[in-house]
Amino acid sequence: MRRFRLYCTRSFALAVVTVLPSWTAAQRGANSPFPGGENPDGSLKPSARLQRLFSQDSYTEYALLEPGTEQFRIRFLTEETRAGATELVNATRGGSEGTDVEVYDPRTGKPLPFTYDVQGETHAIHAKLTSPVPPGGIGRVLIYKTYKDPRTYQVYREANAPFGIQDGDISWVRSLSGYRLGVILPKGYAFLSSNVAAQMSTTSDGRLKLHFANPSGLSNPLTIHARKTTAEPTPTRFTDMFFDDVKTLYDLDDPQTHTMRVEQIYSDFRKGDTPPLDLLAYAALKDVTVLDLDTAKPLTTSKRGAATIVKLDVPIVEERQSAHLKVNGTLQDPKYKVVNGTLTFDRPMKGLRNTILLPAGWDVTSVSQSGTVGIFQGRAFVALVNLNAENTYRVVITAKKKA
């Protein structure tokens, strides 16, 4: 069975052009029949076909600072997949003034050197990676920065009864084109409204936070209205479900064999140097291998009781650190089968993102959960993004073989 590289959007245009196959880029060219956007009369033009097995690789958190400052603090965890790349570039949105920039290596938690280039309205952070991105590996950068944008973060200084405004109310609006997102209110404020469906929690220091995903990756205009409150919220037991970057690929072999290759990529933030491989608790994989994606080097596994653990080269000792791991193995599942000419995939899924890649020559005919359908290297796939807090959900997919 062939192995496939997982193509994902990056945080800036340069990496997108470099990472995506030429036939994907061609779909978006000047002469493309799928240009996207709108016609002069406002009707929509067809956009490019889905060909990425996964979306949502970057995570962005916006923490609104004290009302009146017009500032918000951003935490941005992003990746670079170009082999040989020595830096990651993160551009500041036009009109937003960036200050207090900090850049860290998620592998070690240590600061990374960077430059902050300003050319007119265009600002960009150039983060220097600790080493070139190795073939088969992924470079990572954690960026903190503060934006000031009076256009989007406002305080209403006068009451306006017809519109329900009280003195001191705030609003924040942002066209969010990221994938996994969080927004935190200033302490002591409560939501009056938020126009995007999201999970909500109270942080350990008493601030209210929205967490949500934007599976399409397209612009998602968010408007938040909030007001000072005397309520004292209690921290919730659950945290931001969309911060978890786990993604699992089920690469299906011929259904007659009941076999599939499973690949899971995720960041592990648990303290220590021997985290368990959670995937193996619900998928009995054979021929298991683990790769450290920061170095593209294999890691050693062993047993600790019933659990399989992996030995990290760099222990996790602080909150900015994580291990970036890829687990591979082969799974036999009798529920993956073909009966009377119908292929059936029937499994419980865990985690935020799961993609099922069908064997060549099969067309999807039904999917029991909400997902997107696309074609990757001539094979149909179903990509699922779990927008519910329940971590486990059952997925049934059927397909028919082409004549």
Describe this structure in words.
With 403 residues, the protein is mainly beta. It is globular, with a radius of gyration of 23 Å. The protein has helices at residues 13-19, 22-27; strands at residues 59-64, 71-80, 87-92, 97-104, 114-119, 122-128, 139-148, 153-155, 170-176, 180-184, 189-194, 199-202, 208-213, 220-228, 247-252, 259-268, 286-292, 297-299, 301-304, 307-310, 323-332, 337-339, 342-350, 353-357, 362-367, 372-376, 379-385, 392-401. The protein is 3% helix and 45% strand.
Give the amount of beta strand, in percent: over 45%
* CATH class membership of the largest domain: Mainly Beta
The structural class is mainly beta
Global geometry:
globular
Q: How many separate structural domains?
A: 2
**Strand adjacency order, main sheet:** 18-17-21-16-15-24-27-26
Itemize the secondary structure elements and their pairings:
Blueprint: H1 13-19, H2 22-27, E1 59-64, E2 71-80, E3 87-92, E4 97-104, E5 114-119, E6 122-128, E7 139-148, E8 153-155, E9 170-176, E10 180-184, E11 189-194, E12 199-202, E13 208-213, E14 220-228, E15 247-252, E16 259-268, E17 286-292, E18 297-299, E19 301-304, E20 307-310, E21 323-332, E22 337-339, E23 342-350, E24 353-357, E25 362-367, E26 372-376, E27 379-385, E28 392-401
Parallel strand pairs: 1-10, 15-24
Antiparallel strand pairs: 1-2, 2-7, 3-6, 4-7, 5-6, 8-9, 9-14, 10-13, 11-14, 12-13, 15-16, 16-21, 17-18, 17-21, 19-20, 22-23, 23-28, 24-27, 25-28, 26-27
